[in-house]
């Protein structure tokens, strides 16, 4: 299997890396972390101007058609420098609208994302042991529209999001519903996350909504699948960035007259990090490849869960080890590597931790064994 990026994806990677390297400084990160929305809006505008958001969307909607592969390249670069942007929720939502939305929904929502005047977020999680595809939030038909009632937990990056894609249960199965963030029956409760981003708990009380696709048609599964892959991509970048910090730190610091990088115990720690990161990268791109035609939903779900598990388990192990090899300086909350640690912790619990990923993967494998 060839995981080389190709010219278009390499161009996206190089341009994103250049913009992030120029804009994402420790001083800028501190400034954004104390702002109300916790989003670097000027940096978001830079990505819009560079066409990097449009690159992900289909050509029929005005984008470059790079899809999930382009999204993952962009998210890896974001994670590498922990840039405070709502890329994964906005773009996974946009890709779901592009795949399942009506022409009117696509023409209303996607141009706003590409020109920077509006963005989406996604509401996939709920309080308690609730699987993403069996939400307690309920959808009831109301003439040509729908009404939603329920509570969604830790909705990422609500600031600046005009609409929310909400997963909810309808009669025919789980569906994806589009809700205006300021609609009647919608209320928000702000919540700060481990990574210092702002999220919010979303309460829906008979809130008006539009259906994206049809209930049970795979739109909800598509959204959760792409979100899992997107989180794996961000975590891969976070782990790579953390490893880069460790390599620089250990070359410069000395103990007993020798650089710390020459000590075998430290080398073993970084070797384990490298192995985990390579496993994260391979399983990530295997999951992206599983989305290609001919499409097999069960196979794509398995690949996405494998990538998600490696990102959750391997990513968390990596940021823990790298925190450890930095010694006391690693716990300084203003030291750059500490942000990678916090991002790794946050991502490792989003959409469930490693145990939840394994449970879902086991259920899929059991179903495949029964039907074969």
From TrEMBL:
Domain of life: Bacteria
E.C. number: 1.-.-.-
Alphabetic keyword roster: FAD, Flavoprotein, Oxidoreductase
Enzyme class: oxidoreductase
InterPro entries: Acyl-CoA_Oxase/DH_mid-dom_sf (IPR046373), AcylCo_DH-like_C (IPR036250), AcylCo_DH/oxidase_C (IPR009075), AcylCoA_DH/ox_N (IPR013786), AcylCoA_DH/ox_N_sf (IPR037069), AcylCoA_DH/oxidase_NM_dom_sf (IPR009100)
Gene Ontology molecular function, alphabetical: oxidoreductase activity
Cofactor: FAD
Domain spans labelled Acyl-CoA dehydrogenase/oxidase C-terminal: 229-345
Domain Acyl-CoA dehydrogenase/oxidase N-terminal: 7-116
Family membership: Belongs to the acyl-CoA dehydrogenase family.
Name the record gives this protein: Acyl-CoA/acyl-ACP dehydrogenase
Organism: Streptomyces poriferorum
């Amino acid at each position: 299997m060839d995981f080389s990026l190709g010219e278009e994806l390499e161009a996206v990677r190089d341009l994103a890396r250049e913009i992030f390297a120029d804009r994402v400084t420790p001083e800028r990160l501190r400034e954004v972390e104390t702002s109300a929305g916790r989003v670097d809006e000027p940096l978001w505008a830079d990505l819009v101007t560079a066409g990097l958001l449009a690159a992900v969307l289909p050509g029929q909607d005005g984008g470059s058609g790079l899809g999930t592969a382009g999204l993952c390249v962009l998210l890896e670069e974001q994670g590498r420098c922990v840039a405070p942007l709502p890329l994964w929720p906005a773009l996974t939502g946009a890709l779901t609208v592009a795949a399942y939305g009506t022409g009117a929904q696509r023409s209303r929502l996607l141009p706003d994302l590409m020109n920077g005047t509006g963005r989406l977020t996604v509401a996939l999680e709920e309080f308690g042991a609730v699987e993403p595809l069996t939400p307690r939030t309920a959808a009831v038909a109301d003439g040509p529209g729908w009404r939603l009632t329920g509570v969604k937990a830790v909705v990422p990056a609500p600031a600046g999001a005009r609409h929310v894609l909400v997963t909810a249960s309808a009669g025919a199965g789980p569906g994806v519903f589009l809700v205006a963030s300021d609609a009647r029956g919608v209320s928000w409760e702000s919540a700060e996350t481990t990574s210092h981003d702002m999220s919010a708990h979303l309460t829906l009380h008979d809130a008006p909504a539009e259906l994206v696709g049809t209930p049970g048609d795979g739109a909800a599964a598509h959204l959760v699948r792409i979100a899992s892959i997107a989180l794996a991509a961000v975590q891969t970048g976070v782990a790579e960035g953390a490893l880069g910090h460790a390599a620089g730190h250990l070359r410069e610091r000395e103990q007993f007259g020798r650089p710390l990088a020459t000590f075998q115990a430290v080398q073993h720690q970084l070797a384990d990090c490298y192995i985990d990161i390579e496993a994260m990268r391979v399983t990530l791109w295997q999951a992206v490849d599983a989305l290609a035609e001919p499409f097999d939903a069960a196979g794509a779900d398995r690949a996405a869960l494998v990538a998600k598990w490696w990102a959750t388990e391997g990513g968390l192990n990596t940021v823990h080890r790298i925190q450890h090899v930095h010694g006391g300086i690693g716990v300084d909350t203003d030291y750059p590597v500490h942000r990678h640690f916090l991002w790794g912790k946050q991502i490792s619990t989003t959409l469930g931790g490693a145990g939840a990923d394994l449970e879902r993967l086991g259920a899929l494998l059991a179903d495949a064994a029964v039907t074969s």
